[in-house]
């Protein structure tokens, strides 16, 4: 699967079980279901999940929590990227095997 294939999945009303939990979280976020996206990344313990977690809290407006997660992965908190740019970056990173 590539990023274009993943974007096509956003046309559906149901998140495919066949994609990784990271992509599921990003799918739910794109569909406006922050709570489900957050519930998914909360269960994961890897660096990519922590980065998605940071993004979700930044998007939520909880900047203190967001900074905690960015720090956990060694990223400096930055608002230079738009939410859309960061979301696409996270999708690309989640597609890397």
Structure commentary:
The chain has 97 residues and is an all-alpha fold. It is 65% helix and 0% strand. The chain contains six helices and no strands. It has helices at 3-9, 21-30, 34-42, 47-60, 63-72, 83-95. Helix 2 (21-30) packs antiparallel against helix 3, helix 3 packs antiparallel against helix 4 (47-60) and helix 4 (47-60) runs antiparallel to helix 6 (83-95). The longest helix has 14 residues, at 47-60. The chain is globular and about 35 Å long. It starts with a helix and ends with a helix. The relative contact order is 0.16.
Task: Bin the helical content.
Answer: 55-70%
Number of continuous helical runs: 6
| Termini Cα gap | 10 Å
Parts with pLDDT < 50 across at least 5 consecutive residues? none
Shape estimate = globular
H and E string: HHHHHH
Compute the number of strand runs. 0
Radius of gyration: 13 Å
Strand proportion, as a percent range, falls in under 5%
Structural class: mainly alpha
* Main sheet specs: none
Short structural description:
The chain is mostly helical and 97 residues long. It is 65% helix and 0% strand.
Task: Lay out the secondary structure.
Blueprint (H helix, E strand, L loop, with lengths): L2 H7 L11 H10 L3 H9 L4 H14 L2 H10 L10 H13 L2
Structure characteristics:
mainly alpha; 65% helix; 97 residues
């Amino acid at each position: 699967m590539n990023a274009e294939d993943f974007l096509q999945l956003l046309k559906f009303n149901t998140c495919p079980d066949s994609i990784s939990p990271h992509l599921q979280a990003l799918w739910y976020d794109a569909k406006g279901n922050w709570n489900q996206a957050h519930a998914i990344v909360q269960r994961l313990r890897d660096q990519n999940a922590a980065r998605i977690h940071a993004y979700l809290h930044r998007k939520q407006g909880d900047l203190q929590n967001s900074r905690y997660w960015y720090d956990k992965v060694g990223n400096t908190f930055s608002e230079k990227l738009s939410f859309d740019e960061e979301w696409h970056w996270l999708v690309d990173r989640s597609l890397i095997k």
